[in-house]
Amino acid sequence: MRLFDADRASDADWDALHELQASAYRLDYPERPPMTRQETISGLRAPQVQAGEQLTWTAHRNDRLVARAIVMLPSDGNEHLALVRIHVHPDVRRQGIGTELLHALEPMLRDRDRTRVEGWNLTLGGPGESWAQGLGFRIVHSAVLQIMELSEVDRGRWSVAVPPGYRLMRWVGAAPESFVSAYAKAREAIGDAPLGESEFGAPDWSVDRVRRIEASYRSRDIEHRTVVAVSSGGEVVGLTEMEARPLLPERLQQGDTAVLPAHRGHGLGLAMKSAMLRWFTADRPGVAHIWTATGTGNTHMIAVNHRLGFATVRTGSVVSREL
Ligand SMILES: CC(C)(COP(=O)(O)OP(=O)(O)OC[C@H]1O[C@@H](n2cnc3c(N)ncnc32)[C@H](O)[C@@H]1OP(=O)(O)O)[C@@H](O)C(=O)NCCC(=O)NCCS
């Protein structure tokens, strides 16, 4: 097993990793567009910033790359968790490699004070679920992947008025100093998004976390945009965020959308997301698709996404176990 260093990897290292991921994804996620080499590189160089530190291990047998594990170590209230994604090359499955890789990770995760492991995006009824259940994991949640193809969508769907009594504000990168503390507070509203029995809780938002995350986006060259809803009293009552990665110019990734409880049911979620779509696609003509993921039980968000032009392409499960 080796720790994969995305800053030092050679072309041959990327080729091997990509061959494994592309083969596995073709088999495991046929509903999703094929994995490209750029996507493999982007996934490691510009990871999901808000999920915490990301480490990748590769497993080799006789010099052949046979599996890889991506581990995310979230912070700010989720320090007990490790989120693990293991893929074994389709040619060498059912030989104990996945099990051995997971067991080899365990002491390293304990060293980082993690006490629970979760795996996300397993195929319903697929090999990952059988494998994980055999190892003592329980299925605790499920989430949908939704994709919008811009060539097919009627952009008129995004002409949505802002509800009376509110206005929208937006920024790229850092939140304005005068708003950052109200913004950090509003971000806690994501805690109401259904997560089943997953232990991945909404992070403890603070100005410090907002600023740390903004710095991580900057250091990875990820463009992060935010639209917030502001009440007539000047309070930040909702937000939505979207990211563009340097190696994936044709894709935008939707992040959190949340509205404070007292302001729900007025159409703010739809208005903020529409404004974000109009804004982000207007000055990025190369964008072809937008991705988003949300809990299967989050019927309101799923319905808003359908109204905007997203299609549900996949449902994946979440498994969880004490370490
Ligand atoms: C899940 C995965 C990692 C398993 O890797 P693997 O090396 O093939 O698994 P192992 O050989 O260690 O399997 C151990 C046991 O798990 C169970 N298992 C594994 N694959 C299975 C399948 N396709 N169907 C039923 N049970 C399965 C079996 O009990 C197996 O023991 P057995 O072969 O003696 O019957 C691999 O199928 C994979 O990469 N899947 C796609 C990604 C994924 O779902 N990852 C898991 C979540 S992080």
TrEMBL record:
InterPro entries the record matches: Acyl_CoA_acyltransferase, Bact_Acetyltransf, GNAT_dom
Assigned keywords, A-Z: Acyltransferase, Transferase
Keyword Manganese: no
Membrane-crossing residue ranges in chain numbering: none
Domain N-acetyltransferase stretches: 1-169, 188-323
Superkingdom of this protein's organism: Bacteria
Pfam family, one: Acetyltransf_1
Name by which UniProt lists this protein: GNAT family N-acetyltransferase
